[in-house]
Amino acid sequence: MEPRRAEITTERELRELLGPPMPRAITKDRTRLLDIDRAFLAASPFCLIATAGADGTCDVSPKGDPPGFALVLDDTTIAIPDRPGNRRADGFRNILANPRVGLIFIVPGSPDTLRINGRARLVREAPFLDRMTVRGNRPPLALVVEVEQVFLHCPKAFMRSRLWDPATWDPAALPGTAEMVKRVQDVEESLDELREYYGPSYEGRLYGPGPPAR
Question: Which of 13, 22, 121, 163 has its CA 20 to 30 A from that of 143?
């Protein structure tokens, strides 16, 4: 017999279980970027972008580039460059229907994260795109986010997961990219061909022309 489940269906039930938020967890919200936020963005090479379509379908997309890739345009606006990828554009298509986005910025080794929520738009031409050129690649578009809420998130998740502790790293726990692709997708390429594709030359195609990444 399946164990009995007790679901939470109201915010009142949720608060009865978790209790009220800590006062400083409420007051940390800001609507403008401060110097510490700018410093965090300047150090961050990676972020996660959450979007939702008009029908509520959600997506979370990783974005990575050299530290400082998220360009601060002013105290309430940042821009994130697009780079060559698989061209699915799941998040971008969501934004066209629903501009609300949630971003989490990460700095390797730091247990803190910077969270930004706001409204986004896609910009295909602007002078700041020149400042986003990496390895000769000027992005074809950028995600411009109007900041509505920004705050630093506490380090507990990173501490619990020991994410930055090398002693916990186990790359061998998963097969290589080529093996995973071959296992979950019906692709024409052989495993050896996929291994060559995702081999040393793969890094050389991160910013330049080449077959689209799968």
Answer: 163
